[in-house]
Design goal:
7 helices, about 220 residues, binds adenosine-5'-diphosphate, binds magnesium ion, four-stranded antiparallel beta sheet, alpha/beta, about 30% strand, six-stranded mixed beta sheet, Rossmann fold
């Protein structure tokens, strides 16, 4: 599903080069639940941007579902982001004026799903994350954990090949964070490929495999 070959990324800050990713090399198969784990500043978000086709490598190659990302146009990349990847962020990134159901409908509206159908599907996705009775609530009427569930339902509504979750428990207390990880595990058991990005080792251990990144390099890749 995912193949990164010797991917590097350097940022320039004035005259100073910061090598955020240095020869990153790994593969992730369909149906896996993988954690990318490393301390703050190790390059996780830079890697997430690559994986999510929000940025392209300076060096190396990235194949997603057989597509050569380095040789894709901006239009193609936008299309890939919208159809293949479901993003989940630390701060949920819900639209505050829309209720939970409407938030889940947004990606489907972009895909041209009819209004009636997107309502029906959005209800089903909310049910999958245990929020069938919260559709009419706006984000500020929901707890943090519930908001993250809505964000996960929204990610699912793209029928993504991969869910990319960047620190999805970072804004939650421990118990709620564990519940969100349980939900991700459940979705993975149903076949969803998930990449979880975290600085927290305990959370990373919940995934089936860990890819550790330190100073932009993969330091080890233990299998449990
Ligand atoms: P993490 O998500 O693991 O905390 P990042 O990928 O955000 O790490 O950052 C990796 C390194 O790249 C850090 O040294 C950071 O300062 C640097 N960096 C990240 N984004 C930029 C940017 N847009 N411009 C310059 N340097 C950046
Ligand atoms: Mg980060």
């Amino acid at each position: 599903m995912i193949e990164m070959k010797n991917v590097s990324k350097t940022y320039m800050i004035g005259d100073t080069e910061v090598k955020a990713l240095d020869q990153i090399h790994f593969q992730i198969g369909k149906g896996e639940f993988v954690a990318i784990v490393g301390p703050s500043g190790s390059g996780k978000s830079t890697l997430m941007n690559m994986l999510g086709c929000l940025d392209v490598p300076d060096e190396g190659e990235y194949f997603l579902d057989g597509i050569d990302i380095n040789n894709s146009s901006d239009n193609d990349l936008a299309q890939i982001r919208n159809t293949k990847i479901g993003f989940v962020f630390q701060n949920f990134n819900l639209l505050s004026k829309l209720n939970a159901l409407e938030n889940v409908e947004v990606p489907m509206m972009y895909k041209g799903v009819s209004a009636g159908e997107s309502k029906r599907l959005a209800s089903a996705y909310l049910e999958r994350v245990g929020l069938q009775d919260r559709g009419k609530h706006t984000p500020k009427e929901l707890s943090g954990g519930q908001q993250q569930r809505v964000a996960i339902a929204r990610a699912l509504s793209c029928e993504p090949q991969i869910i990319l979750a960047d620190e999805p428990t970072g804004a939650l207390d421990q118990k709620t964070g564990r519940e969100i990880i349980c939900l991700l595990k459940e979705l993975n058991a149903q076949g969803q490929t998930i990449i979880l990005i975290t600085h927290d080792n305990n959370i990373a251990q919940q995934a089936n495999r860990q890819i550790c990144i330190i100073d932009g390099q993969i330091s080890e890749e233990p299998r449990l």
